[in-house]
Design goal:
Length: 254
């Protein structure tokens, strides 16, 4: 397996926040970690990214043990909820920031930066500053900045939570296309069931630090591990059509 988390544990103040979490995923896939607020999603992601050290357990990526490496030594990029863009830099400068430490000449970095800005539809705004663009555009810059360093794994923590519903749907589609085009392996955290069902190749459903189920959306739909999963995903309100589409049953009350 490409990414392997085995028996990860993390406590804060003596309280188990992530309890013996093991999961695997294949290269080039998108895994959604889904669960209610406080269940340990961000903590799990931060352990994969290296921003938190697990109390015990192991993280392997493409055969390499990452468990004790600092974030900058991991072949992993993270897109945070708040984007973390630099306000005093242009879009292009933001996007190429990570190339500084990778031996690129300024000209090569700028060329590559333009390619990545083009990929997220912002080539014509390269010289703009962060405050001059919209939330959705900032999200795209953050994504380009994470992907330009060609990580083996890209982590995203609720990246669309600050966007309005329509833009969220659009960004979801764009992200999925980008992920497929680049054959990028992604772990995406969300507490939005619909988003997870639509986006993911596999879904890891967490509750109070425990992993309840990790499987494809369709297999979870057809065979939820327990009643909690069934209720949490509102499976009674969904239909999986013959052609593999997910539909919501809209109940009309008289
Ligand atoms: N640095 C910390 N110190 C103490 N407790 C923490 C710390 N970080 C997280 N926690 C606690 O660990 C639990 C899990 O937090 P985490 O941020 O992983 O949840 P989450 O699933 O990402 O939630 P949300 O959907 O609200 O972002 C929560 O009870 C939280 O209060
Ligand atoms: Mg979180």
């Amino acid at each position: 397996m490409y990414l392997e988390l085995s028996h990860l544990k993390k406590q804060f103040d003596g309280k188990d926040v992530v309890c013996d979490l093991s999961l695997t995923m294949e290269k080039g896939k998108l895994l959604c970690i889904l669960g209610s607020s406080g269940c340990g999603k961000t903590t799990t992601l931060n352990m994969i990214g290296g921003f938190l050290t697990p109390d015990s357990g192991k993280i392997l990526l493409d055969g390499q043990d990452l468990t004790r490496l600092p974030p900058e030594q991991r072949p992993v990029s993270t897109v945070f909820q708040s984007y973390g863009l630099f306000p005093h830099m242009t879009l292009l400068e933001n996007v190429i920031y990570g190339l500084k430490f990778r031996g690129f000449s300024k000209a090569d970095a700028r060329k590559k930066g333009r390619e990545y800005l083009d990929m997220v539809g912002l080539a014509d705004r390269a010289g703009a500053f962060i405050h001059e663009i919209s939330g959705g555009q900032q999200q795209r810059v953050a994504l380009a900045r994470a992907l330009i360093v060609e990580p083996k794994l890209c982590l995203l923590d609720e990246p669309f939570c600050n966007l309005d519903a329509a833009l969220r749907v659009k960004m979801r589609e764009e992200l999925k296309k980008l992920q497929r085009d680049l054959d990028m392996t992604m772990v995406f955290v969300t507490h939005d069931q619909e988003e997870a069902m639509i986006l993911s190749d596999s879904m890891a459903i967490m509750e109070q630090g425990h992993l309840l189920q990790n499987d494809t959306p369709e297999r979870i739909y057809r065979n939820p591990a327990n009643d909690f999963v069934k209720r949490f995903l509102n499976l009674d309100d969904l239909i999986w059509t013959q052609d593999g589409k997910l539909m919501k049953i809209i109940s009309h009350q008289m």
